[in-house]
Structure formats: C-alpha cells, structure tokens
Amino acid sequence: MLKGLRIRMARGRDIPGLLTFFIRLDRDLYARKFYRAYRCDGLNVLLSLLSLTYALLICNNLRHYLGRFYIFVVLWYRGSCAGVCHISVRKQENRLVGSYGIAIDRAFRGRGLGLMISRYALLLARKLGVERVYLRVDTDNSRAIKLYRSLGFRVCGRTREFRYFTDSYVDQLVMKLELTAECGRKNHSS
Ligand SMILES: CC(C)(COP(=O)(O)OP(=O)(O)OC[C@H]1O[C@@H](n2cnc3c(N)ncnc32)[C@H](O)[C@@H]1OP(=O)(O)O)[C@@H](O)C(=O)NCCC(=O)NCCS
To answer: Rounded distance, CA 32 to CA 51, Å?
Structure first.
C-alpha cells in the first residue's frame, strides 16, 4: 500500500488534477478504447473536458443529472490523480441499476489500486440502494477482466462494438454484479 494514498468522492477543486489525468490517459490505448475517443487529439481533449464537466456537476452536488445519480471516486497520490472509478445510476423497473467504469494511471497499475477504488465506489453504490451493476469490457483486456472477477462480476452477455479509434469491431463481455451479495469477495467461479 502506497503511503499518502487517498480515495474519496470527487470535489470541485479536483478539476485541474482530473484534467491532467484524463489527458495522460488519452495517450494510453486501453484508456482510449475505454473512453471511446477518436483519433483526433483535439477531440480527445474535448471529450476529456466533457468528462470533467460531468465531474463538476457531481462535485457541486447536482446528483440528479438527467434523472441519474453519479458516483465519481478519485484516487489521489501526492497531489496528482492516480485513478478514477465511476458508477452512473439509473432506475430500471423500480430498481436502481449502475453502469461502472474505471481507469488507473499506467504508472500505478498492478498494485491493487483498481481493486481498492472499485470496492470503495461499489460500497457507496450499495449505500445508495443500487442493487445491480453492469459493465462492458473488451475480451482482450485480461487485466480488467481479472479485476472484475475478483470483485464478483459475472459474465452475462457478449456484444460487438464499433470503434472509430481502430476502425473495426471489438468483441466485448457484458458483466454484472449483484450488490445484495457481498462485493469484492475472491475466488468466485463464473
Ligand atoms: C483495468 C485496470 C483498471 C486495473 O487496475 P489495476 O490497479 O492495475 O488493478 P489491480 O492492481 O487492482 O489488479 C487487479 C487484478 O488484475 C491482476 N493483474 C495485475 N496486472 C495484471 C496484468 N498485467 N495482466 C493480467 N492481470 C493483471 C492482479 O493480479 C489482480 O488480480 P488478483 O486480485 O486476482 O490478484 C487498469 O489496468 C486500467 O486502468 N486500465 C486502462 C483502462 C481500462 O482498461 N479500464 C477498463 C475498461 S472496461
């Protein structure tokens, strides 16, 4: 565990740090796929700014945005953002359902931080009353899939997604986690 590491909900004053984090991520292939960015750098920056605007809305406690809740958790290490995890929440047949996303700075991967920040965000989601969380992940993103399985996510479908970035279709797994069960348990079989 890194000394000086902090995990918490995003705040308004995090915006400059988040901006540099998202710009750094845009140079990363998986992150580009994750945020469905386009080849053009100007657009990448624009998408980053849109993400930040979204973050700003949450930071200002505008928790209802287009009828959705939004959980945006940040990981800080020595004044810079080392990762983010977000869960957008919507109502589906009178139940709260979340869509999950995560990105950890390349320099901080493989140290258990993905697991840590995810558990924190999932705990907040459960406290909000979210019963089920979904995500989509590329079939070749083995590191992310391993993380999701550790958290208790199970494969519940498969899709093909067109990517402007690669000009091709990418196979994706749809995974879900029931939050009524204890999340973050290890050694689940799928
Ligand atoms: C996916 C991602 C969030 C994982 O974060 P992380 O901090 O590296 O993950 P952790 O260190 O918590 O490791 C999680 C699991 O992956 C395993 N892992 C670590 N490095 C790995 C690697 N290179 N290959 C495969 N598995 C790996 C760990 O052993 C751990 O499994 P365990 O709990 O069974 O030991 C991070 O790699 C990332 O930000 N990637 C780019 C963005 C992205 O792909 N987001 C997901 C889109 S769906």
So the answer is: 13
User: Is 117 a pocket residue for ligand 1 (Cβ < 6 Å)?
Assistant: no
Give the HSE-up count for residue 114: Cα atoms under 13 Å, Cβ half-sphere: 21
**180 or 155: which leads in pLDDT:** 155
**Spatial CA neighbour of 166 closest among 19, 75, 37:** 37
183, part of any domain: no
18 lines ligand 1 (CB under 6 A): no
Q: Which two tokens stand for residue 136?
A: 């989509």
CA 109 to ligand 1: nearest atom = 8
User: What CATH number is attached to the domain comprising 56?
Assistant: 3.40.630.30
pLDDT bin (cut points 50, 70, 90) of residue 177 is very high
Does the pLDDT at position 189 exceed 50?
no
Q: Is the CB of 102 under 6 A from ligand 1?
A: yes
Q: Which of 88, 185, 189 is nearest to 135 (CA)?
A: 88
Cβ–ligand 1 contact at 172 (below 6 Å): no
Residue 62 Cα to ligand 1 midpoint, Å, equals: 31
Phi then psi dihedrals of residue 55, to 5 deg? -60, -40
In the chain, the percentage of residues whose pLDDT exceeds 70 is 69
| Structural domain contains residue 184 | no
